[in-house]
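User: Could you go from structure to sequence for me? I need the amino acid at each position, not a summary. Structure tokens:
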């Protein structure tokens, strides 16, 4: 017996009319939980599946295993080699996606209703009985190694790797999920089987489904698709602190333009002050040309083409990050201005007028995200992963409206710590002390 709980909410979709959308919480006979939005006007179904763990589950000395494994999932399954599998998928007009992230792996599928049974059977083969043929491993490994080699010459990637290493140390967040040339080169087929068994775990599954499908059909589909996954997996990583102190690290790299990545400890997604922090970041550097940093660093001084900041609440650590690029002659000034704006927001906060403008923008743009089956499925599964209830979608703008300017100014003083900002600069900047590489 499947269990269906229904939550109703109304959104202004990107159409002239209000559309009533119904989120249904479905629990299959096999115990898989999913959220469903039925939409029978077009005979298409979108699935978005996330499984907690991700590349953080790479075993010691096997960095890059989960990333490589997920890239190999559709390179042959069951009796089909890579070519036969792709031909079967194309014949069914289906689209699959397989990605690995720090804290989750992602499986997506978009398909015609009429091909539903055949598509799910094919996808099940990929998830349950991937082949991991040696020729496929060698071919995809070569692609990954090419990407690693490219990243080693990319100033932004170099900055990110150095920042992560300093911030997270020996935690999995501290190294690239792609692995290194040495670690990826040494991976074997047995390592792929181990990574597959560790990453695809039934008890850690989240599902969002949208389209021409009923709760009963979804329940049967998910038990068929995911019911044979192992129930338990390896322990998830522990939480970690962001081990950064204020300052500048310079990595000498021959280029006319320096790239800087900067940040410090952030805020958890479930913190009661998260919405205030979200709005502070929006005004500081998260809103493009409307942000203070863009105004001060680009518009007034012409030091960069762009500067952005981001709240990054990972599962096991939280940071607030920013990035900027400027010529070697001007990057030091760009950093000084950034610190000054960080300090100004921390000490002065923002005005009521600024807050009102932010509220108008954020409440107006939110409904526009719910566009297309795949996009909505992604939102549904993302909400589950971070522990939000279905009614969040109807209450979200109320949370935005409830934030006061007093909240903003209090949280700004707590969240933003200019003295803790650490800048990793890749280039040959003038006026910044070189660090020992």
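Assistant: Here is the amino acid at each position, in order:
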């Amino acid at each position: 017996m499947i269990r269906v709980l229904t939550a109703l909410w109304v959104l202004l979709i990107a159409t002239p009319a209000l559309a009533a959308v119904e989120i249904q919480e479905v629990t299959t006979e096999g115990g898989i939980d999913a959220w469903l939005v039925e939409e029978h006007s077009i005979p298409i179904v979108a699935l978005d599946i996330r499984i907690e763990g991700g590349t953080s589950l790479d075993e010691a000395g096997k960095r890059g295993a989960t990333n490589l494994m997920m890239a190999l999932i559709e390179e042959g399954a069951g009796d089909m080699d890579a070519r036969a599998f792709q031909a079967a998928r194309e014949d069914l007009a289906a689209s699959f996606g397989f990605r690995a992230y720090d804290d989750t792996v992602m499986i997506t599928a978009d398909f015609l209703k009429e091909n539903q049974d055949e598509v799910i059977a094919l996808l099940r083969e990929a998830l349950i009985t991937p082949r991991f043929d040696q020729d496929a491993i060698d071919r995809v490994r070569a692609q990954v190694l090419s990407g690693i080699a490219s990243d080693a010459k990319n100033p932004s990637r170099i900055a990110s790797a150095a920042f992560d290493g300093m911030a997270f140390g020996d935690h999995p967040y501290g190294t690239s999920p792609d692995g290194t040339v040495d670690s990826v080169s040494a991976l074997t087929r047995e390592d792929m089987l181990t990574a597959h068994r560790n990453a695809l775990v039934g008890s850690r599954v989240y599902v969002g489904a949208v389209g021409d499908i009923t709760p009963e059909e979804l329940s049967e589909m998910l038990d068929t698709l995911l019911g044979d996954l192992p129930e338990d997996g390896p322990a998830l990583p522990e939480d970690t602190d962001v081990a950064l102190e204020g300052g500048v690290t310079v990595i000498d790299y021959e280029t006319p333009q320096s790239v800087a990545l900067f940040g410090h400890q952030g805020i958890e997604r479930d913190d009661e002050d998260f919405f205030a922090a979200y709005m502070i970041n929006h005004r500081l550097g998260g809103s493009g040309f409307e942000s203070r940093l863009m105004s001060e660093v680009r518009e007034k001084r012409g030091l960069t083409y762009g500067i952005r900041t981001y709240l990054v609440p990972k599962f096991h650590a939280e940071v607030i990050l920013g990035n900027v690029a400027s010529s070697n002659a001007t990057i030091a000034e760009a950093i000084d201005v950034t610190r000054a704006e960080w300090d100004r927001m921390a000490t002065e906060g923002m005005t009521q007028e600024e807050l009102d403008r932010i509220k108008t923008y954020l409440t107006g743009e939110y409904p526009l995200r719910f566009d297309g089956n795949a996009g909505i499925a992604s939102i549904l599964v993302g909400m589950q992963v971070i522990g939000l209830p279905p009614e969040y979608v109807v209450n979200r703008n109320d949370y935005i409206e409830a934030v006061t300017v007093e909240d903003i100014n209090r949280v700004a003083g707590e969240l933003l710590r200019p003295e803790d900002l650490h800048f990793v600069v890749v280039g040959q900047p003038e006026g910044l002390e070189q660090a020992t590489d």
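One structural detail worth keeping in mind: The longest helix spans residues 134-151.
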